[in-house]
Amino acid sequence: MDRRFLETVHPLEYIAVVERLCSALPEDGLAQLPTGDTVVSKGTFDAAVEAAAAALGAVKRAVAGVPVLAAVRPPGHHATPGGGMGFCVFNNVAIAAQWARRQRGNVLIVDFDYHHGNGTQAWVERALEESGGRLGFISTHAYPAYPGTGSFQECKVAANGFVIDIPLAHSTATDDFTAVWSTLLPAAARRIQPSVILISAGFDFLTGDPIAGLPVDLRAVDELCALLSAVATEQESALALVLEGGYSLENLEASGATLASAFAGNPSGGEYARKAVPQDPRLAVMVEKARAWLD
After folding, report:
1. Distance CA 225, CA 218 (A)
2. pTM listed for this prediction
3. How far apart are CA 33 and CA 29, in angstroms?
4. Given 10, 78, 115, 141, which residue is catalytic?
């Protein structure tokens, strides 16, 4: 397989380090990436290349009204341009977004994983300094939680795009979680006017996840899907979803069924209903500030 697409985000030196490390391992051997807390085996490099290729394939195939999901492992949103960490080797979404920005134009990245997508944000911040279409990154994530990044103070809004981080208290429940997205996602999309909306679809934010989880019910996935469909229809955007976290098989099965039902055929989108601002006063202040930046 031609691996040059990895080099659109990651330096060749890092890619070579991962390949050498994995190829040198015995069949039953394990090692840790020198760049971060990620265990690899002999087959990890090939699996990570395939995952990044699948994310790239998803964004290439996605067109308005026909969403595409890349159900991949390993995930990618913690991998910075310079190195992997947090189960992530290559940044699948950043690689897909880089292609989309060059070939399609404006790109909006949506990340609702329990953990902050620090690697994706690092790439976005770098990309915003380069020429290209408008680029936005908006993330909700538990805070403080691994990897310790994603405070509200990290938000940045520029003429050609933005980084919006909404850190969630560990007590954040379903209605506040969905209120954040129903308020900010439409505003973010209107500002970027994306040709492509790329979703870091991590389902470890759901209650019952064995290593993460907020008190957020499965109905939040239904509401997210309806909102994404409506916003994509409004903007005539392609939707490409890339699996990130999620360690409850029950939650993954249920979320997958919701995705299949919501995006089967040609989703009509329809109108989205903006919810009231979150009940958590601290969260409400952040959301209103971020909405004002985006409007």
Report:
1. 11
2. 0.96
3. 13
4. 78
